[in-house]
Design goal:
Elements (H helix, E strand, L loop, with lengths): L3 E7 L13 E6 L2 E5 L5 H8 L8 E3 L5 H4 L2 H10 L6 E4 L5 H8 L10 E3 L6 E5 L4 E6 L7 E6 L3 E4 L1 H6 L5 H9 L1 E2 L2 E2 H4 E4 L3 E5 L6 H7 L4 E5 L7 H7 L4 H11 L3 E5 L9 H9 L5 E4 L5 E3 L5
Helix pairs in contact: 3-4, 10-11
Length: 301
């Protein structure tokens, strides 16, 4: 059975706390695993969460601040130690190539796995598979940063009442799906578009066009909310979002499930993030993330 879920490995921002590891997020998408922003300690958090190196197919780094990338060295070495039997593709800002190189070869180890480097230098599609297209959008942070979005292709939903009305039954249902028509009956006559799911990851950024483009129509939006609204000036100064700003983005974009994360160590109580997000008008499903949390991708509409 296919699994689509977010596994939260860490939720701290610049400084980890007793209860929050540095960033790390794994998106399980059917048979693939996409690891976003492996901060320091990610390899240990993977162990605690039951995530193996074999589960990883892609690594996506939004930017090269330490809390989003220092775990790369350990994760890459673990991929090689475990002799993962497939290539792993790494996406990251091209301007940070020197940082990626240093992390990839931080210490001596035996390379046994192909790590495909696919740096990002502009907005657009990065990869297309049978199950999704992975896109990137430029964000606004003191260093070059990109957010990522995964888009499932639209499919078709068969409508039993229309199938019955046109006399399509049994093996003919599969045939019309494959061939697009059955005699005078077209696929459009007995089905409707089933919109593909969309998941986005928006880490360190101020409000900008890229944030809104990534969030648009998402079923699951994982977004930083480093600060509370009373510290908006600090958020703008350091290139971050507040809980209220993130929630307003989600509300305007029609997001179904909002996951807030990347919290400053100055805050110890998560309830206020939820309160401010609700005060900003977001009425969908809302999760204030904590380490080792699992969040299922919402079922299709």
């Amino acid at each position: 059975m296919s699994v689509r879920e977010l596994v939260v490995l860490g939720t701290a921002s610049q400084v980890p706390t007793r209860h929050r590891n540095h960033n790390g997020y794994l998106l399980r998408w059917d048979g693939e695993g996409i690891l976003f922003d492996p901060g320091e300690g990610t390899q240990r958090q993977m162990l605690r969460a039951g995530v193996a190196a074999h589960d990883l197919n892609r690594i996506c780094v939004t930017h090269f601040h330490g809390d989003h990338s220092l775990g790369l060295a350990g994760v890459i070495q673990r991929i090689n130690l475990d002799k993962v039997p497939h290539e792993v593709t790494a996406h990251y800002p091209k301007s940070g190539q020197r940082f990626f190189d240093r992390l990839r070869y931080a210490t001596a180890y035996r390379e046994t796995v192909g790590i495909v480097e696919a740096p990002v230098s502009e907005d657009g599609a990065l990869a297309t598979t049978r199950g999704y297209t992975l896109e990137a959008r430029r964000l606004s942070h003191p260093v070059e940063s990109y957010g990522y979005r995964l888009i499932e292709p639209d499919g078709r939903r068969m409508l039993p009442d229309r199938l019955a009305a046109h006399g399509v039954r049994g093996p003919d249902v599969g045939r019309i799906q494959r061939e697009g028509a059955l005699g005078d009956v077209r696929l459009d006559d007995v089905s409707e578009v089933r919109r593909g799911q969309r998941c986005a990851f928006v880490m360190d950024t101020r409000l900008c066009d890229g944030v809104h483009a990534l969030a648009d129509g998402c079923d699951l939006l994982v977004i930083e909310s480093t600060f509370l609204d009373e510290d908006t000036d600090l958020a703008v100064e350091h290139g971050h979002l507040t809980a209220g700003q993130a929630a307003r983005v989600a509300r305007e974009a029609g997001v179904r499930h909002l996951v807030l994360t990347h919290f400053s160590q100055r805050y110890s109580e998560p309830d206020e993030f939820e309160r401010q997000a609700r005060a900003a008008g977001f009425e969908g499903e809302l999760t204030v993330a904590h380490d080792l949390l699992r969040v299922p991708v919402p079922k299709r509409r």
